[in-house]
Write a structure and sequence with these properties.
By secondary structure, the protein is α+β, with helices and mostly antiparallel strands. 45% of the residues lie in helices and 16% in strands. It is built from 10 helices and 8 strands. The radius of gyration is 21 Å and the shape is globular.
Length: 292
């Protein structure tokens, strides 16, 4: 009997937590709607929500508990209400996959069609070189356009004329090596680098960078910080001298016979689309475009 009562109490606590998370998330969505109604276009709205996501979610290497939670969900089971308290209270960092999941679920809550597109390498020893972005359908001058919105790197791509570039036009320009047709619009915002355990970082850093990190984490009184302010932008996250991810990704491409800039990696589809219900039909269109 005592075991049954204890189990019942645990389940009730979990239910209460779910209700609390849902209420907290609905309150936040209501707050965001008040901001969204002042936006002048779909592009402005989706950019505002991208920047909101980038500022909310910390970067960093997840600890074992966070990693288990990340690995336990796919797009369909991902619940923004469950993850929001972790992000709001700086308890959990996220890489590009979970960050784009959250952004896409947020876009869905505001009525946008959106999908996760992942590109890069899936075979050993190159699995590190995968990146995920959101593809968002917006209205531009009365016509539908599918654009890249990247909440992790905080960027969008434009045409040379300044309009958000359609994803299929982006792929066509890449295939033609007409990279001058693609303009990266990479703004900056501030989020946090979470360092729950420096040992998660030190093996990947050279001695100079380990020293820099240790010094930044140490307070004057000898205690250790677990959170540092960091700029979320392309230069910081892709070209840092302590983790030159763009250079490493380009080198992996060269080892596969592609002497091209990083933007060419968008043609390396790494997974099926997930997102809005018509994702399978859109996947077919993208696959046809990549085969041309």
């Amino acid at each position: 009997m005592l075991v049954l009562v204890a189990a019942c109490c645990v389940a009730q606590t979990a239910d209460d937590r779910s209700v609390s998370e849902a209420l907290l998330w609905e309150t936040e969505l209501a707050r965001l709607r008040a901001h969204v109604v002042t936006r002048g276009s779909d592009f402005d709205t989706t950019t505002f929500l991208r920047e909101y996501t980038g500022a909310l979610i910390d970067v960093g290497r997840p600890d074992a508990d966070a990693a288990r939670l990340h690995q336990s969900v796919d797009f369909d089971s991902f619940n923004a209400a469950e993850f929001y308290p972790h992000f709001k209270n700086d308890r959990m960092p996220a890489a590009c996959g979970i960050t784009s999941f959250f952004y896409i679920k947020l876009l869905h809550a505001f009525g946008f069609k959106a999908y996760q597109y992942s590109f890069g390498f899936t075979t050993a020893p190159y699995q590190r070189f995968i990146h995920s972005v959101a593809l968002v359908e917006i209205d531009v001058a009365g016509a539908k356009r599918l654009i890249v919105q990247d909440p992790y790197l905080n960027l969008v791509y434009r045409t040379a004329g300044g309009e958000p570039i359609d994803f299929f036009d982006l792929l066509a320009a890449i295939r033609l090596r007409a990279y001058e047709r693609i303009v990266m619009d990479a703004s900056s915002l501030t989020t946090s680098l979470l360092v729950s355990d420096p040992a998660l970082y030190y093996p990947q850093l050279n001695e100079r960078c380990r020293t820099l990190l240790a010094g930044a984490l140490r307070r004057s009184d000898g205690t250790v910080r677990t959170r540092l302010p960091i700029t979320r932008d392309y230069a910081t996250l892709m070209r840092s001298p302590c983790d030159a991810f763009e250079d490493a990704f380009v080198e992996a491409m060269r080892e596969h016979g592609m002497n091209e800039p990083f933007i060419h990696a968008y043609t390396l589809r790494a997974a099926d689309l997930v997102g809005s219900p018509d994702h399978a039909a859109l996947q077919q269109q993208i696959d046809e475009a990549l085969r041309r």
